[in-house]
Amino acid sequence: MFLLVQRFGELMRKLWNPRNFKAHVSPHEMLQAVVLCSKKNFQITKQGDGVDFLSWFLNALHSALGGTKKKKKTIVTDVFQGSMRIFTKKLPHPDLPAEEKAQLLQNAEYQETMVESTFMYLTLDLPTAPLYKDEKEQLIIPQVPLFSILAKYNGKEYKTYKENFLKRFQLTRLPPYLIFCIKRFTKNNFFVEKNPTIVNFPITVHLGSPPWCLNSGFAKLGVCFWGAFGISPGAQTCPLQSEVLRFLGCL
Question: Buried-most residue among 62, 79, 127, 206 (CB within 10 A)?
Fold first, then answer.
């Protein structure tokens, strides 16, 4: 697994080397290491899920650098890992009589439970896309602000659709770099459907105070927009950026 760290470090040193600029850098060796270390779960010739790859890649780097799930940390967890509390409460079936529901709610099975969990990224759910067309017979593409889909993590109740459970997510610590994964693709019985909803990002995001987070040293986070010419003006850098570049051998 250390081959993945070695090839990734080499690729980053080629990309960010200030003394040996290259107009073209081939990631072929890095991709071969991904195929080998993932046991062909991610292949060069086959498109995979980006979120699955991100989760595997960060955890693989953390493990290869000697990190563990609980105690030993690495630069990967220092930069990307945060923590949250997940509150879960089971609901009785809605078709049951009111008296039976009241009795079930007294059982320990239906009491709210809490677990501490860590995360490398936050998954954001988009609202359902409208089915009706506008007056020009075109599908309406809705727009939502980032804070509207971030409401999932404000500590209030959030109902899951697969089972009769109510969940609450409460962020307890934010990482220096906070990754958002917006769920656009859903699978049905026939094909994969894409949600075209546009998410409007602000320049800065304030998540370091309640109800968003109970404890954070990064109250004001800069939003980085990556385009054809790198990072956009106005985006703020992380205090650990120099440490990351030093780890990659760029400083």
Answer: 62
Mean pLDDT of all residues belonging to the chain: 78
Q: Is residue 55 packed enough to be buried (19+ CB in 10 Å), middle (13-18) or exposed (0-12)?
A: middle
Q: Where are the domains of the chain?
A: 1-80, 81-221
Looking at residue 150, its pLDDT comes to: 87
Rounded CA separation 115/41 (Å)? 30
The whole-number average pLDDT for the span 226-241 is 39
* Angle between helices 2-15 and 28-37 in degrees, nearest 10: 160
Residue 50 has pLDDT above 90, yes or no: no
Residues 131, 133, 138, 139, CA torsion sign: negative
This prediction has a pTM of 0.75
What is the model's pLDDT at position 234?
39
